[in-house]
Amino acid sequence: MSQNADCRRMKLLDILAESEEPRDLSDLSTSLGCDERTIRRDLDHLQNIMQRISGLEVRRGKALVARSGYSPGYFTHQLDRNAIAKGQIAQSVLRLLPDDMAIALTAGSTTFAVAREIRKASVEGVSPSNLIVFTNSVPSLLELIAAGVATGVLGEIYNHDDCAFHSPETRSSFQPGIAIVGASGVLFGNDSPSCGLDLFSHRSEEAAFLKQLLANVPEIIVTVDNNKLGKRHPWSFGGSILQGKKVHIVTDFLTETQSEKLEMLKEKLPSIGIQFQYTAANPQNNLSEQNKI
Description:
By secondary structure, this protein is of the alpha/beta class. The chain contains ten helices and 14 strands. It folds into two domains: about 1-65, Arc Repressor Mutant, subunit A; about 75-290, Rossmann fold, CATH 3.40.50. Helix content is about 40%, strand content about 20%. A seven-stranded parallel beta sheet has the order 5-4-3-8-11-13-14, with helices on both faces. It has a three-stranded antiparallel beta sheet with strand order 9-10-12. Strands 1-2 form a two-stranded antiparallel sheet. It is elongated and about 60 Å long.
């Protein structure tokens, strides 16, 4: 099956390379003996590969690729860490998104995985559809543009470490209904010094930017893999900013203790005006404290 898919994709690439005009998906599906959705998935697969390399070389009897990466820094360092978990989180986030929604997507490796899932959904023609997604992440912006998603830029000053734009003051007429954010640390329950839930950034300028951005957004989806839960940094962008909002944490798995704390938080937060939910994207991997040890 895999070999047949690889052969089909190579034929598809050859056809497109030799074509001077755009090709109809229906013609391509007929030529390759598959349906249009398969063609869309093949194109997405090929595009994903092409974005990661800039060429092929042979040196001293060895084949290698010249990679087209992003500028070295925090984002690039985090990109391949816990990649499977980030993909699972991103898929769960997409199931939470309605059609016809305006979204702010902030910088980070897990939110970048969300951008990739939005691109896949757009290429395959499945929900969520008709999204408008503004982002301060350059890698996410490129994913959205490649898929033809209506998009725009948040922030003003580019930071190569995050591959993202930040600004001390958010000036935009864009009014998102949902903000999808990453966090380098999340404290909840008795560990949180504020309202019972606090979000942290590894950079002061990013925290300041996120506070400005989230102030007027009614719903926040926090994407964070499990190893960020229980961690804090000096720069908070949660706390009182979250009051009066819907907040949904999406992670890969939860320990029994974490689940218990989040259940208690779910009962407590409505009293201070926060509608709180949480999702474990891969609940079969939930660990007991004994297994974790």
